[in-house]
Write a structure and sequence with these properties.
This protein is mainly α and 102 residues long. It has 5 helices and no strands. This is Transmembrane protein.
Length: 102
């Protein structure tokens, strides 16, 4: 009697387990085989592999960009857009303000 009460407590869990198992078995039975899928998609897989190989090859043979340790390209433009004066301009602006104050 005690076991029956516990089984009835988990009745929905047991039914959902069997329904899910039946669904998985049905899908596995009706689904196409892996080799059939591979035969259908082999051109796509090969072209993707060749593209990735070409990317790796071009990455290896392309020359490395040598940048000067000083100002990087675009830093001046970024400072101009941000409104931050360059160090030389800041010193000149400070001198102009001190000259006006005198």
């Amino acid at each position: 009697m005690e076991i029956t009460e516990k089984l009835l407590k988990f009745k929905f869990h047991i039914l959902s387990f069997f329904a899910f198992s039946f669904l998985i078995i049905t899908v596995c039975y009706l689904a196409p085989r892996f080799l059939d899928i591979l035969k259908y998609f082999w051109p796509l897989l090969v072209s993707t592999a060749l593209f990735l190989v070409a990317v790796v090859v071009f990455d290896r043979i392309s020359p490395l960009s040598v940048e000067s340790p000083g100002e990087k390209a675009g830093d001046g433009l970024l400072e101009f857009v941000a409104g931050e004066p360059a160090t030389g301009e800041a010193d000149a602006a400070a001198e102009e303000e001190s000259a006006k104050a005198e």
